[in-house]
From TrEMBL:
The protein's name: DNA polymerase beta domain protein region
UniProt xrefs under SUPFAM superfamilies: Nucleotidyltransferase
InterPro entries: NT_sf
Superkingdom classification of source: Bacteria
Organism of this sequence: Paenibacillus lactis 154
Gene3D superfamilies to which the protein is assigned, alphabetical: Beta Polymerase, domain 2
Length: 371
């Protein structure tokens, strides 16, 4: 059996001799640290370069049939791991250090661990939910491939797609539960048992994805697991107590959007339908999202199927897109004028100050006296 730590000692000694100022951290993680190593286990070790020259110590090699990958993690990626943007969080959280260049490097590394320890804080809940939602988006790419693969879709390819979707579901569920995995391939289920939020039929779907001989069954299991996870994300987000605030979300919004409203008025007056189409749709959707955020304290979910528009219609804002007509622009033009007046009044009532001036002199007086 290869003495993997003797191998690590050789590398660390070489770094101390030739790359003293170029490598900040060397550490190891995985099976040897967790006491699960077998005779075929390699040493999962990494380093953080301190300079571009430090990257030269990277090396992949094999000793007596055992593979080694001494790979670099930049400080930027280590920071993403600490915030769960990169889901290899356990590498930073649970590793053992073999070499540290300086006290400053150690302090920086321990700061990353402090960040990881805050993952479960309520202040990070919405961030983690949003990241989970972003990961599930990638599942839909796999589902689209199922739909359009045609003759290329066979059992082998369906299992590859199922593997991709399952991996993203695993990651999304960890984010949703504000945690991370300490073991990866083939060891997810034992960690699922500790998750409070997970699809009811998670095990059943995974069994189908792994064992079924039917492409259609695998596809259906992938769809169900994706949609069930998406539902849990939406449910979790909707339970958060958001802070209603027009000041936080809509300060400066109208002043910026006024340019697009003017563009739409011009398009109506000149009969330019293509401009009217894109600008009207953009204005209506933007305002609907901003009103939703101001009222609920959170941005509409990535997979919100238009529910956020309810607040827009509740306040009686005009349906610009329904008024698009290449033969008659006048109803749309009148609706835009109505929207301008209504939005100005709405924001004033909510205490949002509008920076509107009747002249350059009036603006100058405001600006030069601005604190």
């Amino acid at each position: 059996m290869v003495d993997v730590f003797a191998v690590a000692d050789i590398i660390v000694k070489h770094i101390k001799t030739h790359y003293t100022q170029d490598v900040a951290i060397v550490g190891y993680y995985g099976s040897y640290l967790q006491g699960r190593a077998t005779e075929r286990s390699d040493l999962d070790f990494f380093f953080i370069p301190a300079t571009p020259r430090g990257k030269q110590v990277e090396l992949q090699f094999i000793i007596d049939g055992i593979s080694f990958d001494f790979w670099p993690i930049g400080w930027d990626r280590a920071e993403r791991m600490s915030t769960s943007e990169d889901w290899s969080t356990t590498i930073i959280a649970d590793c053992e250090l073999l070499y540290v260049r300086s006290e400053e490097d150690l302090a920086r590394f321990m700061k990353l661990r402090e960040t990881i320890s805050s993952i479960r804080e309520p202040s990070n809940t919405l961030t983690m939910i949003n990241r989970a939602e972003g990961v599930v988006r990638d599942c839909f790419t796999g589902l689209v491939k199922f739909q359009f693969a045609g003759e290329a879709m066979d059992l082998s390819f369906s299992r590859i797609l199922a593997h991709e979707i399952a991996a993203n579901i695993f990651r999304a569920l960890a984010l949703l539960n504000q945690t991370y995995y300490t073991r990866m391939w083939g060891h997810y289920r034992e960690q699922f048992r500790d998750l409070l939020i997970k699809p009811d039929e998670l095990d059943l779907c995974l069994d189908t994805m792994m064992f079924s001989q039917s492409i259609e069954e695998i596809k259906s299991a992938c769809e169900k697991l994706t949609l069930d996870t998406l539902y849990l994300i939406s449910e979790r987000k909707n339970k958060l107590a958001g802070l209603r605030s027009y000041q936080a979300w809509m300060k400066g919004y109208y002043e910026e959007e006024k340019g697009m409203l003017n563009k739409l008025l011009t398009a109506c007056e000149k009969g330019h339908y293509e401009t009217a189409f894109f600008v009207a749709a953009g204005i209506q959707d933007s305002l609907a999202r901003m009103l939703y955020a101001a009222e609920t304290g959170r941005w509409p979910g990535m997979f919100d199927l238009g529910e956020y528009r309810e607040i827009y219609h509740r306040f009686g804002y005009p349906d610009l897109t329904a008024l698009l007509d290449p033969k008659d622009f006048e109803p749309l033009r009148i609706a835009v004028l109505q929207m301008i007046e209504q939005l100005e009044n709405h924001l004033r009532i909510e205490g949002v100050a509008l920076n509107q001036f009747d002249s350059v002199a009036e603006f100058e007086s405001f600006y030069v006296n601005r604190v």
